[in-house]
Amino acid sequence: MRLPRPHRDDLFIAAAGLACGLLLWSFGLFTKTDAVLPQRWATLVPLFVMASMEALRRTRPQFALTVGTLAIVGDQFTHGNLVTVLMFTDVVYAAVVYGSPSSARRIPYTTGLITVGGTIGLLLWWQDAIALLVGVVSGMVSFLPAVTGAVVRNHREAAEAARLRAEQTALLAEMDRAQAVVAERARMARELHDMVANHLSAIAIHSTAALSLDDEATTRQALTVIRENSVEGLAEMRRLIGLLRDSSGDAEPAAAPTLAGLDALVAQAGANGASSGLTFTLDDTRRESGEPLPAPVELAAYRIVQESLTNALKHAPAGAVRVFLARNARALTVRVTSPFGDRPGPRAPGSGAGLVGMRERVALLGGEFEAGPVPDRDGTKIWRVRAELPAEERTPEA
Q: What is the distance between the alpha carbons of residues 6 and 14, in angstroms, rounded to a whole number?
């Protein structure tokens, strides 16, 4: 297994410590006058070993502490070098800061117990107060660096945890922002489709009729309908632009449509669909209730009716289109039925985006939606759009 290379700063610390130790040794500055090993060169062995461990203080802290402990013990049998002791304190500090979490917790307690136990043992053996001084020096060499390393490590871990929390908070904020942008784009797409599709569908149908039928009266009538829908579509586009402007713009957003405008909406659909043989009726039984509906519910119901009428103008054969609204204490029911089958004459193309938009509107309010062909009372098939919207605004379940 390839061992990690020593850190550049650790190599510098080791070289500086070794140079200072050699300088003290050359001047004969030792920590003790008497020694078990009186030879001058014996002091260099712990010095070189400790300097080598300094080079490994960051990459192999536990190994450096083990060998460094043996070196500091060996130094006690020589005349002693002050730099060897100082480098040992740094090795203890580095073992706590850069070592494993378990060793970082264990080393301060171990050095503290050794310091206290050694001091008590020397007091019992020497019966002299000098043992207290030896214990203080021993604590300064081992216990104090270990505690300092633990404090530094705790601060670093707290700072790292705070950084990670800040990154996670920023990531969550970015995710929320992206979701908000997607939701706003979807809302804008629904509004644009619901506001403009009705008018553009009528324009497409009547322009096709005007081009395919060589009749002056029919062409004039088609152009009249096209002009009306063009003007109304332009007004709707201006309203959408007003909704997108902020307070610093030069236009104020217009009020959102409500169910009070259904009469006009159905009448307009009747004018647009007369040439296709379609008749439109509105049965609004909710008028018996005087309690107002939440604005989002009214807007969703209005858009569902608007889109259903647009789809009828696009695809339904000649027949009756009925709009029904009812309300109870809990929900508003919107139902639109139209003839189902192939229709003769010009048709406006469809993409299915209208059904998707209606379904999204109902889902956002926590309601129920269904659309598709169903049998009528006389056995024929009709196309039915049905939505149940909560009478009180609420958030849909996740």
A: 11
Domain regions of the chain by residue span: 8-170, 258-398
Contacts from 99-107 at CB under 8 Å and sequence distance 24+?
99/61, 99/62, 99/65, 100/62, 103/61, 103/62, 104/149, 104/150, 104/153, 105/150, 107/65, 107/146, 107/149, 107/150
Q: Report residue 384's pLDDT band, with 50, 70 and 90 as the boundaries.
A: very high
| Top-confidence residue, 62 or 252 | 62
Q: What is the pLDDT of residues 154-167, one digit of tens each?
A: 999 999 999 999 99
pLDDT at 291: 72
Crossing angle between the packed helical segments 130-138 and 101-126, to the nearest 10 degrees = 170
pLDDT at 369: 93
> Residue 61 is which amino acid?
P
CA quadruple 326, 328, 332, 335: dihedral, nearest 10: -30
379 pLDDT band, cuts 50/70/90, is: confident
Structure token digits, residue 366: 């926590």
Which pLDDT score is estimated for 148?
94
Give long-range contacts, CB 8 A cutoff, 24+ apart: 345-353. Answer: 345/209, 345/276, 346/204, 346/205, 346/208, 346/209, 346/212, 347/205, 347/314, 347/315, 348/200, 348/201, 348/204, 348/205, 348/313, 348/314, 349/204, 349/314, 350/311, 350/314, 350/315, 353/189, 353/193
- The mean pLDDT of the chain is 83
What is the C-alpha end-to-end distance of the chain, expressed in Å? 52
Q: What is the DSSP letter of 4?
A: P
DSSP class of residue 141? I
Class of domain 258-398: alpha beta
Distance CA 367, CA 388 (A): 5
